[in-house]
Amino acid sequence: xxxxxxxxxxxxxxxxxxxxxxxxxxxxxxxxxxxxxxxxxxxxxxxxxxxxxxxxxxxxxxxxxxxxxxxxxxxxxxxxxxxxxxxxxxxxxxxxxxxxxxxxxxxxxxxxxxxxxxxxxxxxxxxxxxxxxxxxxxxxxxxxxxxxxxxxxxxxxxxxxxxxxxxxxxxxxxxxxxxxxxxxxxxxxx
Length: 190
Prior knowledge:
There is one protein chain. 22% of the residues lie in helices and 25% in strands. It has helices at residues 30-33, 43-51, 59-65, 76-80, 108-115, 128-136, and strands spanning 4-11, 54-58, 83-86, 102-105, 122-125, 142-148, 169-176, 182-188. It has an 8-stranded mixed beta sheet. Strand 7 and strand 8 (182-188) form a beta hairpin. It starts with a strand and ends with a strand. The model has no long low-confidence stretch (mean pLDDT 96).
């Protein structure tokens, strides 16, 4: 079974919306505007590219990343990886041609089936709504969280508010940086 890893920039109060400056959110760009840059805090991002073998995205994140990431040198490893987009509305003719193999998955059952295939880890970037659905369905195996020392209040959150049984996590890696940023890597305990 393949490991499904959710990776996120997150405020201390759980907001994941518009960390890189996407429009339409009051606190857009909070990762670089409000916290001093410390390069070593972002080393996990390079590690994720080297260890992942596929990317899983929701439609909104796919539409935000696909026009930009294919030409960015810092995301070069992702260009060659297979990409999977979970969407009930995205049409095949809307896929970006210069970003490699991309498959549209229409349901969480298809995500579960993908996890059963041969291969290495699948990384989930952005995709707040998808992350919530994957977590609620018990499909996420690991979380890579960079937690910023900020309280943003309103905004899309990584975790849903669904009333469900407790899901235990095991902290397997952590580090705190001079700027207050925390790296927390959790495995989901089954």
